Amino acid sequence: MKIEHLGIAVANLEESIKVYETLLGTPCYKKEEVASEKVMTAFFKTGESKVELLGATSPDSVIATYIEKKGEGLHHVAFEVDDIKAEMQRLKDAGFRLLMDEPKKGADNKIIAFLHPKSCNGVLVELCQAIKE
Ligand code: CO
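^ thats the input. predicted complex w/ cobalt (II) ion below
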């Protein structure tokens, strides 16, 4: 599986966009709100992968809660799959705990599903599949 992106939780999205534009030497190519999660995302291309910055849009956002508990930093690792439902089933059968039964719409034209960090040695893992246009 290719690492599609790394998700990084940030306290101030606009400030962090500047930091990552300088770090990666490339502009943010997309900002997109995921209203269901109360999160604003900002994407950067780097090599074959991407970086996704995640900022809370509300104090009760999952990202606000995360930063309160753990501080800013690496939030999840996203692997690209061709058939997300098949992968979810395969991993479920292998004993992994999924955080959802059905894939849901994520940012950047993807459907996504998360695996519980307890199943992945402390890492929140996202599976993502590109939505065909
Ligand atoms: Co992600």
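Residues 117 and 123 are 5 Å apart (CA to CA).
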